[in-house]
């Protein structure tokens, strides 16, 4: 029998990790939809993806050259969020507060 890790005992790890993962995969979904849907489409799914990911894109726009194509910016956002999740895990491991299965 495998021991379980209660979610609420490690909420400080799981909650930020979940939010970053959701943003990361929503950006990937925006990339895939961007090939099919027009940028000014009124499709409610496209608007949802844009509304959720626009704050991340706005932060990335500060450090990315203006000549970058939006799709490339979205892919950079996916990569940056991935590395942010890795850094968060490493921080928790370094502090000794990461969830562990024993």
List the helices and strands and how they pair.
Elements lengths: L10 H24 L9 H20 L6 H26 L7
Helix pairs in contact: 1-2, 1-3, 2-3
Give a description of the structure:
With 102 residues, the protein is mainly alpha-helical. The chain has helices at 11-34, 44-63, 70-95. The protein has one domain (10-95). Helices cover 69% and strands 0% of the residues. Helix 1 runs antiparallel to helix 3 (70-95). The protein is elongated and about 50 Å long. It starts with 10 loop residues before the first helix and ends in a 7-residue tail after the last helix.
Which shape, going by the Cα principal axes?
elongated
Put simply, the count of helices is 3
**What is the average of the pLDDT values?**
91
Sequence stretches where pLDDT stays below 50 over 5 or more residues = none
Report, as a whole number of angstroms, the end-to-end distance. 12 Å
Instruction: Report strand %.
Output: under 5%
Helix content: 55-70%
Keywords:
single chain; 102 residues; mainly alpha; 69% helix
Q: Summary?
A:
This protein is 69% helix and 0% strand. It is an all-alpha fold.
């Amino acid at each position: 029998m495998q021991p379980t890790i209660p979610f609420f005992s490690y909420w400080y790890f799981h909650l930020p990790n979940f939010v970053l993962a959701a943003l990361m995969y929503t950006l990937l979904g925006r990339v895939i939809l961007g090939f099919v849907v027009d940028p000014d489409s009124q499709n409610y799914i496209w608007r949802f993806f844009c509304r959720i990911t626009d704050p991340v894109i706005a932060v990335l726009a500060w450090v990315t050259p203006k000549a970058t194509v939006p799709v490339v910016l979205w892919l950079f956002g996916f990569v940056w969020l991935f590395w942010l999740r890795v850094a968060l895990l490493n921080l928790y491991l370094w502090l000794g507060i990461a969830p562990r299965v024993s």
